[in-house]
Amino acid sequence: ENRYLPEARFVFKSWLDAKGEIELVRAPIGDWLRHEENRYLPEASFVFKSWLDAKGEIELVRAPIGDWLRHEENGYLPEANFVFKSWLQAGGPFAEVRGPVLEWVKSHGMDQDAVYLLKYVAKQGDLPRDVAVQVLSWCRKFAKDPDAIWRLTTLTKQLDPKLAREALEASEAVLETLLLKMDLQGITRSQITALLGDLSNLEDLRAGSMSKRLYILVRRWIDHPQSFEPGHWHGSHHQTRQFLETCLTVVESEDKQRSNVTHLVGWVLSWKESSRVECSDLFKRLLAQMRSAI
């Protein structure tokens, strides 16, 4: 009867964490989880995590995890984060934990440890408003976290226009840190361009009362010594007339020191031919700005 004791969870966890042979504990863990007094324990989360982290098959814990998450307040516990993370890392479908995950984010989404879970949440195209706001708020609060730009750009590419202000505030915080760096990785440079392109797609930012704040960010990026890498992969989804118009609005509105648009010109020259042809009139204006600055 030892395998049914609640305390047996310590044995299972220690064995699996020490990389013991999972075959020796597969049946006992299955029996332990089928026991109602065990499978609903808050501490059962550590058995789920250890099993999945040890590469144990998902099927053994699929139903017990579902039951555990639905039982009372288990899905809201801080340690539920470890269950979600291990489930997703093991290849478990997000759809099967979506409801509990979104509820957990509402309660704990401002914890820095939520960063991994937000990676999956930000990818969802139909997020409730309060959850999307939570992701943006996390990015603003932890703007210096290396993952902040990843979470932000993942979300903004499919953002509800009604969240324009929240997206701008998060972007200002994240870019304030990044734009001070003079040596940026290629992927980070592309993310900055993509983020500004995403913001430019939001009408409230491009033409509304917050446009000046957007233009300040765009100007700072244009002036950055590593902006707009010349390559077809750089900001590929924003090699568009609309984004180039935004950049031109910034450049042409300057009445004092002109921006160095050399990098921007180089990037546009790397676009596919059809995109360049579509924007040929804008490109001529951009070249005129470059010549006037010489």
Structure explained in plain terms:
- The protein contains 18 helices and no strands.
- The protein is an all-alpha fold and 294 residues long.
- It is 63% helix and 0% strand.
- The chain has helices at 8-17, 23-34, 36-39, 44-53, 59-70, 80-89, 98-108, 115-121, 129-141, 148-156, 164-178, 186-200, 203-206, 211-223, 241-252, 262-269, 273-278, 280-293.
- The longest helix is centred in the middle third of the chain and has 15 residues, at 164-178.
- Helix 4 packs parallel to helix 6 (80-89) and helix 9 (129-141) runs parallel beside helix 11 (164-178).
Number of strands: 0
| Backbone shape | elongated
Q: What do the pLDDT scores average to? A: 92
SSE-based structural type: mainly alpha
- Detail the poorly predicted runs: none
C-alpha-based Rg, rounded: 25 Å
Instruction: List the secondary-structure elements in sequence, H or E.
Output: HHHHHHHHHHHHHHHHHH
What is the rounded distance between the termini?
85 Å
Let me know the largest β-sheet.
none
